[in-house]
Amino acid sequence: MNAGTANDDGSDHRDDDRHLSEGRPGPGEVGWEELVTAALLGTGRRTPPGGSATALLELAARETVRERAGLLPGTVGPRPGPAPADPRPPLPAPAARRLTMLLAGRAEPAGGGRRSGGPDLAELLPQWLAAAGAHGYRAPAARLPALLDAARARTDLRADALAFAGPRALWLAALNPEWRFALRGGSASAPVDLDDARAVRSRWEEGLFAERVALLADLRRHDADAARALLAGTWPAERAEDRLVFLDTLRESLAAADEPFLDRALGDRSRTVRSTAAELLSALPGSALAGRMAARALACVHLDRVGPGPATGGAGIAVEAPHECDAGMRRDGVSPAPPAGHGERSWWLGQLVEAAPLGRWSERLGGRSPAEIVALPVADGWREDLHAAWARAAVRQRDVAWARALAGPPSAPMAEGPGDPARLLTVLPARERAAWAAAFVAAHGLSEAFRLLSTCAVPWSEELGGAVIDALEIARDAGGYPWSFSGVMGLAERCLDPARAGRLAPLAAHPEEPEPGGPGAGGYWAEAFQRLVATLTVRAAMAEELAGRAPEADGPRPVARPPAPGR
Amino acid sequence: MTGHQVRWSAEQVLALAPDAASRRAGSRLAAPGPWSGTGTGRDAVWGLCAGSGARPYRTAVDLTGPASTCSCPSRKFPCKHALALLLRWAEGPGPVPPGEAPEWAAGWLAKRRRKAVGGGSGPADPEAARHRAERRARRVATGARELEHRLTDLLEGGLADADQAGAAPWEEMAARMVDAQAPGLAARVRDLAGVPASGPGWPGRMLAECALLHLLCRAALGLDGLPGPLAATVRARLGLTTEAASLLADREGVVEDDWLVLGRWDGEEGRLAVRRFWLLGRGSGRLALLLSFGAAGRTPELVLPVGRLVTAGLAFHPAGVPLRAVPGERRGEPVPGGVPAGVGVAAALAAYGARLADDPWLETWPVVLAGVVPVPASEGASWRLADHAGEAALPLTPTGRPGLWRLVAVSGGGPVTVFGECGPTGFTPHTVWSEGEAVPL
Predict the structure, then answer these.
(1) Mean pLDDT, rounded, of chain A
(2) Domain that holds residue A218
(3) Do A245 and A305 reside in the same domain of the chain?
(4) Which residues in chain A (154-213) have CB-CB distances under 8 A to chain B?
(5) Which residue of A has its CA nearest to B24?
(6) Which residues of B touch A26 (CB under 8 A)?
(7) Which residues of A80-113 are buried (b: 16+ CB within 10 A; e: fewer)?
(8) Which pLDDT tens digit goes with each residue over B199-215?
């Protein structure tokens, strides 16, 4: 029974050794091939080596074991280059474990298990990635495949996931066609030293489109004039769609120094480039274009007596919208053709008012403040058009006083607002925005609040968080179902300050009393609140872990643990 | 020392999950909402979890197993409630404070631990046991003789004919081997059925497998004339294993050590779910393979944390190359195990080859490779592991995609320590060490 040993039948054995390299190496020497041929054919048809079927099997067994016992390695082909070093510090151990759990939860189908009390971990991944990126940690190597898969599946977290995954992930992505997406875009190349003019110019002239956009945006933040000069240098040679994207980067740090360049762009071949240049110029109150637009707009709007009004002393606004869109207006970016369902004259008026510096209206309308102007009655049904245009202007020009005036008191009936308060709110300082949203929620409840709440800074202020929780409680007591508020609930999970978890705990208790709403509603609400509490707890833990304040659950441990005392 | 309780990490807990769905469900349930009455003490954790019904589920975990019980109807082991409870416990004393177990949990624990201590008594009637063994040996011999004839017939007719007959004759033959109480022969026969469909070169593989099976049948028939260790190997290959309890009853044969859990593999054999753990004794240097089975859709019970040291006694099944073992009593909790020492590619193949002298039926041998680099597939070749300081390379067997990419990511083009199985078809990686931590693949 010693057929298995490699050393019992001769010294010239090494010649028969097999190199284990590609696929499964069949025992491949001539003798073996003969045995296989004989086996395929059948010993009943032709006498095999050894003389019988049994002898053939015994020879084959010997060959098989001998060959396996003498396997030698194959030789290596071209090796991959080493992954670039990542000097960032590693995650604290508890944070690394949290990441493992978040990535494991990623594959959870949306909507599945929404009724269980646990948090939807996939929704916390973007927040976690942003926070880990802000701390400047390095991603654990073993999690890179899962991070790349997450970035591939969800474009909303792609940028953060790739930034966190770092250079090793790009090295890895180059080996797997499924992750090619990670190599597109500027993040694939090393950043350029923005003070090195030659490096900047060479990247600008030779880089891929995404790299050039990223470079221009970075340089604009670093040195606004240098960025504009860089763009101006190649401007005539760029394609129209590229010019539009490049022009857009000038929104950042827009200043009077940009006016000559933008003025030239007003004569661009492309209509979209022209209108973007006009829009940017109109956001510069001192620009010639803004002056021209103001002259046109002011000519359309004047003070008038529109009848007795107690608050305004009988004063009001009369509007005489433009009768034509002349060549000058067109050159300044006014679009002549209104969209369907829109009158031409109101369309032109809207564009003129939107592009006129808001600071010019006070003088035109009797020295009134923005709030007083907004309060004036407007004749002949022009109020809605005029206020909507001012609201767009307030957003474009980031004018806080006008935005505040146009947003009005948050408790005002919604129908009277100038369109979309969420956009106006973005102009207000964060604290005021939160206060406004809180008062709005207190007055109107949550059904129209989603977009407003989305504009508020995370975590929500105490006032805002309180208002949202109160409104949820009111909605529950009014007999609604929690899924009617799933949008706000989801937002609250991600945006409420984790410190509010205590305030929510009583709401998460299961109801004892006969239930107020439809059948089972109380139980559903309790579950929804449990979920909210659970998510807040997880978020608080996440922040602690990333800050390195979480207890090390995994430190050195004694081999024999003393029994825990019963307490 | 104070009563400080060292808790597991969330990752250790999640490693116990039988599948990805349980891992997700457990993570989701590991929130404060549904839990009440949680506590820990005396190597156990317990708690009540609100479910869809009126009464909460009672969940308890014995950390020394680890083993768990739960009043939920899940057939998974551990169930999502047990996982969630352990995750809560891993978070610290806030969610799960120390305390005294309530009656329902204490009762279960006491019963479990009595069983653990009381097990291992010998067979009640040695005479009857001997008769049973003789009867079984006769049946196995009859089966082996039948199979040998069948193989000879196959070779006389030629493998080309066998290809046309399909898998049915092999399935029937496997069933006859089960009747003959030789499960080892049955499994090999069942594997033969798939060979003709395994792609180019199948006749060579078929001949090799038939030849090894023939060798096993001959060995089975001449069992009494074989030297002791080889006879033990043949018995093991036939599936004539000794019961775990009687192995452990032989106190002298139990190897006490701190065992590093090198790797884990979950798969299926027939209708059984199979889980394998490979261990390396820190003091003895011995390798061990632990098997755990789950019948009828249940997941295997045995769970060990990969990368940790477990202090326990193992009893090895007798064999020419003792590898398979059964775990005895475990003491204390697993501690971090560090990175094991390893060998190069050539030494790994040599280690496999050397074991064939004692067990020619050996398919793979567990090996820790050190200083190896994964090299990408090129020109039709599969991924390989190559010595960092040398030209020798070993193909990786086609494994799951996530495992391969984790291995490559951890390597980053540099040398790593990898545990896996080495055999004639290449290397199957199970674990890689990343900055001192074991990463299951």
Answers:
(1) 80
(2) 197-284
(3) no
(4) 168-169, 171-172, 175-176
(5) A105
(6) 201, 204-205, 208
(7) beebeebebeebbbbbbbbbbbbbbbbebeeeee
(8) 788 889 999 999 999 99
